[in-house]
Amino acid sequence: MALNDNPAQGNGSASQRRSLRGFAAMDPQRQKEIASLGGRAAHQSGHAHEFSSEEARAAGRKRHARVGAPTENK
Questions:
Q1: Per-residue confidence (pLDDT) for residue 52, from 0 to 100
Q2: What is the average per-residue pLDDT within 32-59?
Q3: In the prediction, which pLDDT does 7 show?
Q4: What letters, b where the CB count within 10 A reaches 16 and e where it falls short, cover 25-59?
Q5: Of 7, 10, 28, nearest to 19 (Cα)?
Q6: What pTM value is reported for the model?
Q7: Is there a domain that residue 34 lies in?
Q8: Residue 41 to residue 43: CA distance in whole angstroms
Q9: Residue 51: which domain range?
Q10: Rounded-to-integer distance, Cα 35 and Cα 24, Å
């Protein structure tokens, strides 16, 4: 095995895959459970935002107004 054959060790090539670690390596069901706990904690502590019907309508109008607009080139 050559020195840079390990995909976890990047040699600057963007096309090389990296090994998944931590949260990304977990089973998708376990990720969902952990994320759900975080969401519940945010709601209990009062830090989560809940959209009212009017806020949701306004967001929808704003989004649909942009559908036909040209995209911004950066």
A1: 93
A2: 92
A3: 52
A4: eeeeeeeeeeeeeeeeeeeeeeeeeeeeeeeeeee
A5: 7
A6: 0.44
A7: yes
A8: 5
A9: 22-66
A10: 12
Residue 55 is assigned to a structural domain of this protein: yes
Is 3 contained in some domain? no
What's the mean pLDDT in 47-57? Answer: 91
> 17 falls in which pLDDT band (50, 70, 90)?
confident
On whether residue 15 sits in a domain, the answer given is no
Tally Cβ neighbours within 10 Å of residue 7: 13
Number of domains observed in the structure of the chain: 1
**Location of structure tokens 């949701």:** 56
Helix/strand/coil for 21: coil
Q: Token pair of 71, please?
A: 């995209």
